[in-house]
From TrEMBL:
It comes from Homo sapiens (Human). InterPro entries: SKICH (IPR041611), UBA_autophagy_assoc_protein (IPR051002). This is Calcium-binding and coiled-coil domain-containing protein 2. Residues 23-120 form the SKICH domain. (Microbial infection) Interacts with Lassa virus protein Z.
Amino acid sequence: MEETIKDPPTSAVLLDHCHFSQVIFNSVEKFYIPGGDVTCHYTFTQHFIPRRKDWIGIFRVGWKTTREYYTFMWVTLPIDLNNKSAKQQEVQFKAYYLPKDDEYYQFCYVDEDGVVRGASI
């Protein structure tokens, strides 16, 4: 029976217990034009293996737990992780899901256990 998942797995893991360097965010802009879609580019490091329920969230800077995401997208699993192009990935956030305020946000890659594996700066 297929399980329906509406919310991503989260965790109350404190920031000092995370492994932020296993997924690297690339080409992150200093700002994005309001009302437009945002494409998030990221790369898996050599020893990181993505899993089915991993996700990328947009978090307001200063977040404390992964439960504080603003919005999220499920990641797409590469067919062949040994292929170099499989390590380069992207997800697109549609404009209507994005924050409308002037706060600062960042991308975070969260694995299916709710552990942060990468965060943009």
